[in-house]
Design goal:
Layout lengths: L2 H4 L6 E5 L4 H12 L3 E6 L2 H13 L3 E6 L5 H15 L4 E4 L14 H29 L3 E6 L12 H21 L4 E8 L8 H4 L2 H7 L14 H8 L10 E4 L10
Parallel strand pairs: 1-2, 1-4, 2-3, 4-5, 5-6, 6-7
Helix pairs in contact: 4-5, 5-6
The structure holds NADP nicotinamide-adenine-dinucleotide phosphate.
The site of NADP nicotinamide-adenine-dinucleotide phosphate (NAP) has 28 residues, from helix 2.
Length: 258
């Protein structure tokens, strides 16, 4: 099959959480560029609206839905709105996430819960909502969870984030196992450092230069570096893949740290 056909997403309906900036905005654009109708979900609607306008200007189909991923009723409403506009959501990209830093002994309970509720609980409940709807429609589908290399290895000061991302990797496998025979594939992407709003200042600092030296490819990632892994997992190209986590980190995880 020609590459253009195997990655083609025409007729698919995608919902991307955390689509108001960074990786999520790029995921939404990439899915639309390849034919999917896309619902963009986040809390900042002004930003969502301008990304939707950009997608529509380039000939894509998109809509914005304001929701906090931790609010299950708001997420159900976002799925309803996407379904009303385009039909059953057959691709979910569980991307919304927040970072935090803080040593374990000093970490406040509210901070632990903020990180876990956004980066892990919401990933599960959004996947559950998407899967229930795919099953009811008999449509099958693809769910992609955005994990992190910190779901595999750890660093000091990232205990809540790393714990949540490790949970996302396990959750991906467990969901994949339960949903495989129903035609729903569940996979994850574990990015290394990708320059976005989340980390731009940090990566441009002196500490950032040191981090860059640990990446065998010799640079931080750009948002577009994840187009390939995403398209593989949501399209027919990845039709025999489920429960997998694709690491996209410029070789950072395989390099020995001195
Ligand atoms: N950049 C990296 O180096 C990197 C590496 C590994 C993994 N990741 C993961 O990639 C994902 C995207 O990160 P990014 O770098 O693109 O960060 P970003 O630019 O800060 O984007 C985060 C997105 O998540 C949304 N979000 C946060 N909390 C939310 C909530 N409660 N409800 C709804 N939306 C929420 C934000 O939108 P609103 O504020 O408008 O709601 C925003 O659109 C995250 O899961 C992150 O952990 C990033």
């Amino acid at each position: 099959m020609a590459a253009a056909d195997i990655f083609d997403l025409h007729g698919k309906v995608a919902l991307v959480t955390g689509a108001s900036s960074g990786l999520g905005a790029r995921f939404a654009e990439c899915l639309a560029e390849n034919g999917a109708a896309v619902a963009l979900v986040a809390r900042r609607t002004d930003r969502l609206n301008s990304i939707v306008a950009r997608i529509e200007k380039s000939g894509g189909k998109a809509m914005a839905a304001e929701a906090d991923v931790r609010d299950r009723a708001a997420m159900r409403a976002a799925f309803d709105a996407a379904e009303k506009a385009f039909g059953t959501v057959t691709i979910l990209v569980n991307n919304a996430g927040v970072v935090s830093s803080g040593r374990a002994v000093e970490l406040a309970e509210e901070e632990w819960r903020r990180i876990l509720s956004t980066n892990l609980d919401a990933v599960f409940f959004c996947a559950q909502e998407a899967a229930r709807r795919m099953l009811a429609a008999g449509s099958g589908g693809a769910i992609v969870n955005i994990a992190s290399v910190l779901g595999f290895g750890v660093d000091k000061g990232v205990i809540a984030y790393a714990t949540a991302k490790a949970g996302v990797i396990q959750l991906t496998k467990a969901l994949a196992l339960e949903l495989a025979f129903r035609g729903i594939r569940v996979n994850a992407i574990a990015p290394g450092w990708i320059v976005t709003e989340l980390n731009r200042d940090y990566l441009q600092s002196e500490r950032g230069s040191a981090l860059k030296r640990e990446i065998p490819i010799g640079r931080f990632g750009e948002e577009r570096d994840l187009d390939g892994p995403l398209l593989l997992l949501v399209s027919d190209a990845g039709r025999f893949m489920t429960g997998a986590t694709i690491v996209a980190d410029g070789g950072q995880m395989v390099a020995l740290r001195g």
